[in-house]
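Q: What would this chain look like folded?
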Amino acid sequence: MLDHVEGGIAVCQADKFLYANEPLLKMLGHRSLESLSTYKVSSVAGVASYDSWAMAAASEPRSESWRRADGSVVRVDVSISTMTVGGDGSARVVLVRDVSAAWRAQAQLQQTERLAAVGTLAAGVAHQLNNPLAYVLANINYLAEEIPPFLRETSSALSTEQSDKLNDLLGAMSDAREGAERVARIVRDLRTFSRMEDERRELLEVQTLIDSACVLIESELKNRGRLVKVYDQVWPVEANPSRLAQVFLNLLLNAAQAIPIGSPTRNEVTVRTYMDEAAEMVVVEIRDTGTGMSDAVQARIFDPFFTLKPVGEGTGLGLTTCLAIVHHMGGSIVVESVEGDGSTFRVRLPSAMRSVQRRTALSSHPPEETRRTRMLIVDDEISLLSSLRRALGRDVDVELASSARDAEAILSGDDNFDVILCDIMMPEVTGIDFFEKITQAKPELRERFVFMTGGAFSGVTQQFLDTTDLPRLDKPFDVRELRKIVRRLAKAHTQK
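A: My prediction, written as structure tokens:
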């Protein structure tokens, strides 16, 4: 009867198991009482818990971690009571219930809540930095384009000292540009990894996502080894950017942490991309020269909640999540490892070869000359407005509006704009409300809208960005990218 109850039952005396029912043996990974009896109670239940047993006549259920035969840990609720065993004195009757599933679900919920909080914080920081970064980069890029031609025209009138001074100033501007672009990449990476709820798919270059992940692991890798990139030409893939970025970040972080600190010149993490042409698959290999894994560990690394990291440093969900994301894309992850000689993770992803070829065929046509473009820019950041007008003013007639209401007034008198560049997050009237009001009154203006955003916080805003087919720019953006969109929309407007 005891072998058919739901929970585990044991009788223990001193530091020995006298009896264990079948559910308890199965729970602890043993085949017989003889196998379990080779262990002391303290080696299974933990010394602290066992010491408290000796004084317990009876107890309320309490949660503990018990060690199984294979070394893994099972979470249990334990109740203890005392009984008399013949002339041998007292023993302890132990009732054990496996609560691992509930405990894991609770741990996963807590981890999800922590990740959500971190994601919200990251998105908030990125949003606050995006506007100033956007106009800093726009101004620096404007100077970089305008100053060299000016210097070529005036160089003959400058003294050697003046010329040297101007070269120093150009060098300082170049350094500032590099620094601002580096900050912009970090902000962009923060936004990418904070939008985990976003399910939209798009054509992606895997090297770009890998580069973003590499930036985020620099601090973890610098005292362990060097990073080596070997990029062969590969086709794009069709995926959700934040989810695929999570895969590469997790694998690169694991590779870095597999290398002990202290010998950075002798160790490396190598990232390689190449095509499996026959299968039309993009392959990403991440190899480290770290500690490697045994066969037993390799067999379990994708199991949920399995981790070799200390408590508090890993949940055991990282590789499980990576595998689920890649499988959802129709791909696979394979691991090869030798204990003491590093590991290689090989990610295979279906290429978007046919999608790219189809889009290229549809869009391939010779360039045509167009009239001078007219553009309306709507944003509450005054510095960004003036920066964009300077950057675009040579080729585009730019009209500025610092609020949606100002933009409405402009369009009520003149709607002959090729492009309407509109910020999403604005006070009083948002960019979405402005867009819906204008396009309801003048539907022909819909295809001329381009949205820019420093981050979406509300569900309505995120849903709009996920479902709209109109162009979108994430701040801080490259003015050259904006120019391409402007030329394309202006051309489409002219053809109509």
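The chain has a mean pLDDT of 80.
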